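User: Before I run my own analysis I want an independent prediction to cross-check against. Here's the chain; please return only the structure tokens and, at the end, one sentence I can use as a sanity check.
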Amino acid sequence: MRDTIVLCPAPTMGHVVSMVELGKLILHRYGHRFSITIFLITVEFFETPGLVSYINAISQTYPSISFRRYPPVSYDTTLNRSKPAVLFECILLNKPNFLDSLQEISKKDKISAFVIDLFCTSALSLGKDLKIPTYYFFTSGAGCLSAFLYFPKIHEQYDENFKDLANTVLYFPNLPPLKAIHMPEPMLLRDDPSYYDLLYFCSNLPKADGIIVNSFNDLEPEEEEKIYLFDFKI
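Assistant: Structure tokens:
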């Protein structure tokens, strides 16, 4: 039985490439110990020829990296909502596929880690239920991570859409003030499901076994010190 690390990105070019690069880095350092399996769902309006050719090239160049591709799922196309909201839902609808794959892989390999990105928070409970160490891969810096961790408190302070608060300034610990209208686009409108999907992500960050963050102590010492107060591994 060999050790496998399972990576679960959102099916967009930027998210897939970032997760593949993480897999390549793991293999570069620990290729004698691990293989990499990447779950990849299909959402038709995010599918691009460039993504397909990229996956094929990685599969041919790195035999220790394999992809499990899932067919498109049916979702309600009549609802008026953002593309991020559709993406969150499609990933949630693939949760049974992720469960089947994790169980199947576990029969022949030891899954040493299950790594998800922010869009895949709905899969966090799978790793927990199967007792697989589950981590977030957060491609932004520690300052941004600190803001997301604190966001549930910001949410409690306002009832309005941030998009409508042109003169409101939000205050995050150890970070510069931020105008409410400059929040990430999916957080601007509370009537779009993506707002609550991201709130759910922020609330669940501390529940992971750890967070892989794109930073280092000398770059963001104050931000990392603040993050450690949340009592989990980065």
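Sanity check: The longest helix spans residues 13-30.
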